[in-house]
Design a protein that fits this description.
alpha/beta; about 425 residues; six-stranded mixed β-sheet; metal-binding; 14 strands; tetrahydrofolylpolyglutamate synthase activity; 2 domains; Protein-Tyrosine Phosphatase, Chain A; UDP-N-acetylmuramoyl-L-alanine:D-glutamate ligase
Length: about 425
């Protein structure tokens, strides 16, 4: 169950003050990539760094890393048991995400990290991670329509909730490619607090971070990747000015090429899971904004001379199906709709029924073929592989679908 608020997580952590400083990141899209950039560069620079993102990818504990390595399962379970016992003893009644957040923060204490890079779970103002009180820099990424039932029905309302992570005396970095409504809302909050801010974008990178521009060309980055990198490097400079004023953040830029963020524009080979040697594009796009980015990428890089694309898709229940799949599926494409399995630690997350999803996609004009696969995912992958016949094949629509695919592949090795 999703239950926003800070009182329960505050009670969980009241006897264990956090011994590390934080970089706090909120937004709709880009949080995970920016977190990955920051934790990698900080670790490379010799800063002992922890990272907490959500949701997990394959195992429930892989959302927590120390020095770029996933926390050991044994330590995760040890600390989690302590947190759960405290919750029961004190009668707090914390939610699953609050328990996970407290566990991550306790692990950072235990591992004596210097900096924790922390991604907001939902929203910002009332998200469990907003219990942080020793923040070096706050980051606001790209904001779109997101969890309207909890955050508001307009971009302005949602942006106001996400800007709730901003704190007096803490500088912030904002993705300036956001819509005007979002930028104005966040700017108003910044002015209320009287804090320093950097509004960054690839268009202004030459003036703000001149050393970064050559890496855009060298790494052949997509526009959204450039935006995320601008935010990450700007936040890194602000953090290092407080942590390591003698260190030149630009000296770490060559290591940007080493950052890997699975499930985002990831090319993957699924042999021996399916009989296909050609790579498949795997992407966790799951809202209208990220789907639009994926659609442009596929149209530019994957479709060869108008060749149709074969898709394997799934979606969480309650998603804007037309908004997501209308941005990526084109006339003539073939589609296999699937369902992801239970999500460990997140029982409230349920997949859209594959038949219902197929009906929604069929409403997109002139779709070539749509087949639905309820239950097991593997038949959908096998069918799509046969339909594609070595041509373009993309798996998208849900991070939980990405997780299931990677989990299936791991089980084959």
């Amino acid at each position: 169950m999703i239950e926003l608020g800070l009182s329960r997580v505050a009670s969980l952590l009241q006897q264990t003050p956090l011994s590390w400083k934080a970089i706090h990141i909120a937004g709709t899209n880009g949080k995970g990539s920016i977190s990955a950039y920051l934790s990698h560069l900080l670790s490379t620079g010799g800063v002992r760094c922890g990272r907490f993102t959500s949701p997990h990818l394959i195992d429930r504990w892989d959302c927590i890393t120390i020095g770029e390595k996933v926390v050991q399962e044994s330590l995760f379970r040890q600390i989690e048991d302590q947190v759960k016992l405290r919750d029961q003893t004190l009668g707090i009644g914390a939610s699953e995400f609050e328990l996970l957040t407290a566990t991550a923060f306790e692990i950072f204490n235990h591992e004596r990290v210097e900096v924790g890079v922390v991604e907001v779970g939902m929203g910002g103002r009332l998200d469990a991670t907003n219990i942080l009180n020793n923040v070096l820099v706050s980051v606001i990424t790209k904001i779109g329509m997101d969890h309207q039932a909890f955050l508001g029905s307009t971009l302005g309302e949602i942006a106001r909730e996400k800007a709730g992570i901003l704190k007096p005396g803490v500088p912030c970095v904002v993705d300036n490619t956001n819509s005007q409504e979002v930028v104005e809302t966040v700017r108003a909050r910044i002015q209320e607090l009287g804090i320093d801010s950097l509004f960054v974008s690839p268009a202004t990178v030459s003036a703000q971070v001149p050393a970064l521009e050559p890496y855009f060309q060298k790494l052949d980055l997509e526009p959204h990747q450039q935006e995320n990198m601008c935010c990450a490097v700007s936040a890194l400079r602000l953090a290092l000015s407080q942590l390591r004023p003698e260190m030149d953040a630009f000296s770490l830029l060559p290591y940007l090429a080493d950052v890997i963020w699975p499930g985002r524009l990831q090319n993957i080979v699924l042999q021996p899971l399916i009989d296909r040697a050609e790579p498949i594009l795997l992407d966790g796009a799951h809202n209208a904004q990220s789907a639009e980015v994926l659609g442009k990428y596929v149209d530019r890089k994957i479709r060869i001379q108008g060749q149709p694309v074969t898709w394997v898709v799934a979606a969480s229940s309650g998603k804007d199906l037309a908004g997501v799949f209308g941005s990526i599926i084109r006339p003539g494409d073939r589609v296999a709709t699937a369902e992801f399995g239970p999500v460990d630690g997140m029982p409230w997350v349920q997949p859209t029924n594959a038949n219902e999803l197929a009906s929604s996609i069929e409403a997109i004009q002139n779709i070539g073929q749509v087949q639905s696969f309820e239950g097991a995912l593997l038949p959908a992958l096998q069918c799509a592989s046969e339909e594609a016949q070595g041509g373009p094949l993309v798996i998208a629509g849900s991070l939980y679908l990405v997780s299931d695919v990677l989990r299936l592949l791991r089980a084959q090795k």
